[in-house]
TrEMBL record:
Residue ranges annotated for the JmjC domain, each copy included: 505-673
One Pfam family this sequence matches: DUF2045
Organism in which the protein naturally occurs: Mesorhabditis belari
Taxonomic lineage: Eukaryota, Metazoa, Ecdysozoa, Nematoda, Chromadorea
Protein name: JmjC domain-containing protein
C-alpha cells in the first residue's frame, strides 16, 4: 500500500501530506488494546524506513522540486531511557548533520530513536506554526468578542538562547520545543488590556499544503490577574536585569500561563502603557553594590528576562548527565531543565491558563441577561470601569511545549483555531473567508466596542422578541445556522453558478440614486475592491438591493430567513457583496434583519430622534476615520462588529450606517407592511 501511494498531484509535491498520513497510520499500528492491557509494538525499522524515504530522500516524489528536501540540516534523536523528568544515558541528546554529510548514523541504527527523529524533522522543517495573541471581552451570554488581535508566524526550535552567559550561546531544550517571539515589545505593542478584558493566546500548527490544521495551545489570562502580578512587583528583584534590555524606565513583570492539561507554558511580560498614570520605579533601592554586574550575574547563575528556568547552573541530581549540541557550543545538565517547577518557585508568578469555556462561564449572571435593560446597564458599567482602570501592555515572549504536544499525530483532523481564524482564515498576511480575499492592510473596524444587546437564537422566543425588541431597540442574535447558504455563496461556487447572472450595482451613499447594470463576474473583476478614501460614496458602486428576484430565486430559496416575525409585515430578501471599507452612510427605513454570511461588518445605530451628523455623499469609511474619533461619549452610536452566524434586527426608522470590515457577503430581510 505504502509503495504505491502517489505523492504528486499535477506536478505539485505532496510528500509532506503523504508523510503525515503515514505517521498517523504507523502510530495507530504501534499499539494494540486487549482487555485490560495495551501491547506496544516495536516499529523502529518501519520508522527508519519512513525517515530514509521522506526525510533523507524522496523515494516516491515525482515532482520537479521536492519540498520535503528544502532544509539542509538533518536532526537525529538518540535512543535513551526515560525516567519521569530526567533523561538517562551517556549519549548526546541531539545530533545534527548536513544533508550530504557521510558521518550520519546508518539506516536502522539501534542507537537512534527513529520515531522521534522523524517527528522532530517534520516539526522543524515541514510544518508552519502561527501564534495569535488577542484581547477579548465578553459581550453577552456565551459570546466572547475579539477586540484586537495580532497574528505572527513563529518558528519551532529544540534550543533557546541562554541569557546567563555572554555571546550567542544556545542550549538544547529537547524534548521541549520553543517558539520565541523576537522583538516581542514591538510585535505585540498593540496588545493593551483593560478591566473586563482578557488576553488569549493560541498556537496553531498547519501543514504547508493548508489541508491539515490543529490547535496546540489555547489559554487566556484576565486583566485582574495581570494587574495583580504587576502591582505585587513579584519579579522586582529582576529590576537590575531589566535595565539591560530597555532603558525607557518602564517596570516589567513576568507571568507564565500553564497550558491546557498542564502541558507547556506561555510567558507574558506586563508593563503599564506609557503615559497612563504615574509609573512606579523598576525596583526598590537595594543595599547590594554591583561593582561587576556580569560577575554578579554569573555567580547567581540567573538568566535575564523571559527565560523560563532561572535556577543556578550546575549538575542535576543524576550526576554528570548533560545535553549538548554536536558543535560543542556548551553543555548544560538535562536534569536542571527538567526539575518540574521547583527551580522557579518564588521567582515568576505562574497561573493556570483559563480555557475559552471558562471565560464564557456565566455564574450568577446567567439569570440576569434575560432581564430587560440589564444588557445595556452591564455594558455601561463595563465601559465605565474600562475608562477608569490602568491599561497594561501584555507582551507574549515565548511558548514552549513538549514535542509530542505539537499535534503532529492529530493533523488528520482539521481543527480551526478560535483566534487564528476568528471566523476567517489567516494565510500569510491574507485573510480568506469562503474564498473572498482581503489583504490584511485593508481590514478596518475590527477594534471597538460592542454595546448592542445580544441574544442566543436558541433562547429568543417570538413572545420575547415582540416584547423587548420588535418596536423599541436593536438586538444581535447569534448562533444562527445558515451553513448551506454559506457553502453556496463561496467565491468559487458563485462564479461557477452565477458568473453570467445579471445584477444591478448601487451607489454607496445615503440616497443611492445611481444604478449600473452588470454581470456578477464583471462586478467581481472590475468593481469589487477596497474602498478608496478619495472616492465619495455617490461614486462607489457595490452589489446590494436591486437583484432580480426571479433570476436569483434558486439561491435565495436556500437561505433560512429569521424565524421571528413582525405582525402585519412580509419579508423581502436582498443579497449583497462588497469590498473592505465600503458601506452605506447613515440612513433609515422600515424594520428588518441583516445577516453576515462571509466576512465581517461593523454597524452603527442611533434612535430616530437622535439624528447623527453626517455628509450623505461621504463614505462610511471617511466618516469613521475623520468624524467618529471626535465624537464625545454621549454622542457615540450603538455599535458592534458582526460576523458569520450573527443577524442584527433594527426597528422601524432607526438611523444606521454600515462599514464592511473586510470583503463581505451579506443578506437582509426587509419587513414591509
Amino acid at each position: 500500500m505504502e509503495a504505491t501511494a502517489s505523492t504528486t498531484t499535477k506536478g505539485r509535491c505532496t510528500c509532506v501530506s503523504e508523510l503525515l498520513r503515514r505517521v498517523e497510520h504507523l502510530r495507530k499500528e504501534s499499539t494494540t488494546n486487549a482487555d485490560d492491557f495495551t501491547m506496544i509494538h516495536n516499529m523502529e525499522i518501519r520508522w527508519a524506513k519512513l525517515f530514509m524515504e521522506f526525510i533523507l530522500g524522496s523515494a516516491y516524489c515525482q515532482a520537479s522540486t521536492c519540498t520535503a528536501l528544502g532544509d539542509d540540516m538533518i536532526w537525529y534523536v538518540p535512543m535513551q531511557k526515560i525516567n519521569t523528568s530526567f533523561h538517562l544515558g551517556s549519549a548526546p541528546q541531539l545530533q545534527v548533520f548536513r544533508r550530504q554529510s557521510k558521518k550520519q548514523p546508518a539506516p536502522c541504527d539501534s542507537n537512534v530513536n527513529w520515531e522521534e527523529t522523524v517527528c522532530l524533522n517534520l516539526i522543524l522543517q515541514q510544518l508552519d506554526f502561527f501564534v495569535t495573541c488577542a484581547v477579548c471581552t465578553k459581550t453577552a451570554p456565551q459570546n466572547l468578542q475579539i477586540i484586537r488581535k495580532n497574528c505572527q508566524k513563529v518558528y519551532p526550535s529544540p534550543s533557546r538562547r541562554r541569557m546567563d552567559s555572554k555571546g550567542e550561546a544556545e542550549e538544547i531544550t529537547y524534548p521541549k520545543i520553543y517558539f520565541a517571539i523576537d522583538g516581542f515589545e514591538e510585535v505585540f505593542n498593540d496588545i493593551i488590556v483593560r478591566d473586563g478584558e482578557c488576553v488569549c493566546v493560541e498556537l496553531v500548527v498547519r501543514d504547508r499544503q493548508r489541508t491539515r490544521e490543529s490547535v496546540t495551545f489555547l489559554g487566556s489570562i484576565r486583566y485582574e490577574v495581570l494587574k495583580q502580578v504587576y502591582d505585587a512587583k513579584a519579579s522586582s528583584t529582576w529590576g537590575w536585569a531589566q535595565r539591560l534590555v530597555k532603558d525607557d524606565k518602564r517596570r516589567r513583570e513576568f507571568v507564565r500561563m500553564r497550558g491546557p492539561r498542564g502541558k507547556g507554558y506561555a510567558e507574558m511580560a506586563v508593563a503599564r502603557v506609557p503615559g497612563c498614570g504615574l509609573e512606579t520605579p523598576q525596583t526598590e533601592r537595594s543595599q547590594i553594590d554591583f561593582p561587576d554586574l556580569s560577575q554578579f550575574e554569573s555567580a547567581l547563575g540567573k538568566r535575564r528576562l523571559s527565560e523560563q528556568n532561572i535556577a543556578g547552573v550546575g549538575n542535576g541530581p543524576m550526576g554528570g548527565r548533560a545535553a549538548m549540541t554536536p558543535s560543542g557550543v556548551g553543555t548544560l545538565p538535562r536534569g536542571r531543565r527538567w526539575q518540574s517547577e521547583a527551580d522557579t518557585a518564588g521567582q515568576y508568578p505562574e497561573v493556570e491558563a483559563s480555557s475559552i469555556d471558562d471565560e464564557l462561564e456565566e455564574g450568577v449572571l446567567s439569570r440576569l441577561w434575560s432581564v430587560r435593560g440589564f444588557g445595556q446597564a452591564w455594558h455601561w458599567l463595563r465601559e465605565k470601569k474600562r475608562a477608569e482602570c490602568t491599561p497594561l501592555n501584555a507582551y507574549l515572549t515565548y511558548i514552549t511545549l513538549p514535542w509530542a504536544s505539537t499535534k503532529v499525530f492529530k493533523l488528520s483532523t482539521f481543527m480551526r483555531g478560535f483566534l487564528f481564524f476568528s471566523l476567517f482564515v489567516f494565510v500569510g498576511g491574507i485573510v480568506s473567508n469562503g474564498g473572498w480575499i482581503t489583504e490584511d492592510k485593508d481590514i478596518i473596524g475590527q477594534d471597538g466596542p460592542c454595546n448592542i444587546e445580544r441574544h442566543d437564537a436558541d433562547e429568543l422566543t417570538q413572545e420575547e422578541f415582540i416584547k423587548r425588541y420588535a418596536y423599541s431597540e436593536p438586538v444581535i442574535i447569534y448562533n444562527v445556522d445558515n451553513k448551506k447558504f454559506q457553502e453556496k455563496t463561496k467565491r468559487a461556487v458563485m462564479l461557477d453558478e452565477w458568473g453570467q447572472a445579471e445584477v444591478v450595482l448601487n451607489s454607496a451613499n445615503t440616497y443611492s440614486y445611481t444604478r449600473v447594470p452588470s454581470t456578477f463576474a464583471s462586478y467581481l473583476e472590475d468593481k469589487l475592491r477596497p474602498q478608496n478614501l478619495e472616492t465619495l460614496g455617490n461614486q462607489t458602486l457595490y452589489l446590494f438591493g436591486d437583484i432580480d428576484q426571479t433570476i436569483w430565486k434558486p439561491l435565495l430559496d436556500i437561505y433560512n430567513k429569521p424565524r421571528w416575525i413582525l405582525p402585519g409585515h412580509l419579508p423581502a430578501l436582498s443579497f449583497g457583496l462588497a469590498g473592505a471599507g465600503t458601506g452605506v452612510p447613515f440612513h433609515f427605513h422600515g424594520p428588518g434583519f441583516a445577516e453576515i454570511i462571509h466576512g465581517s461588518k461593523r454597524w452603527f445605530l442611533h434612535p430616530y430622534e437622535e439624528r447623527p451628523d453626517f455628509n450623505p455623499d461621504q463614505t462610511t469609511l471617511q466618516w469613521y476615520l475623520n468624524e467618529y474619533p471626535k465624537l464625545p461619549r454621549d454622542k457615540k452610536p450603538l455599535e458592534c462588529l458582526m460576523k458569520p452566524g450573527e443577524v442584527i434586527y433594527f426597528p422601524d426608522k432607526w438611523w444606521h450606517a454600515t462599514l464592511n470590515s473586510e470583503t463581505s457577503v451579506f443578506i437582509s430581510t426587509f419587513l414591509s407592511p
